[in-house]
Amino acid sequence: IMARKRIFVSAYACEPGLGSEIGVGWHWVLEMSKYFDLWVLTRRSNMPNINAWLAENPDFSNINFIYYDMPKWARFWKKGLRGVRLYYILWQFCSNNIVKRTMIENNISIFHHLTYGNALWNVSRYGSKQTFIWGPVGGLETIPENFSRHYDTKCRIIEKFRRFAVACSKLNVGFLYRCKQADIILCKTEHTLKRIPQRFASKALIFTDVAADAIAHSDSFPVSASDSCCEMSSTAHNVPSDTIAKSVNFISVGRLDAWRGFDLVLEAFAIARKQNNRLNLTIVGDGNDKDRLISIVDKLNISSSVSFTGNVPMSEYKSLMHTADVVVNAALKEGAVTVSFDAVSLGKPLICLDTTGYTRCFSEKYAVIIPILERDVVIDKIKDAILTLANNEQRHQMSLNALNASSSLSWQNHGKQFRDILLDKLQIS
Question: Would the pTM of this model clear 0.85, i.e. be above it?
Answer without folding.
Answer: yes
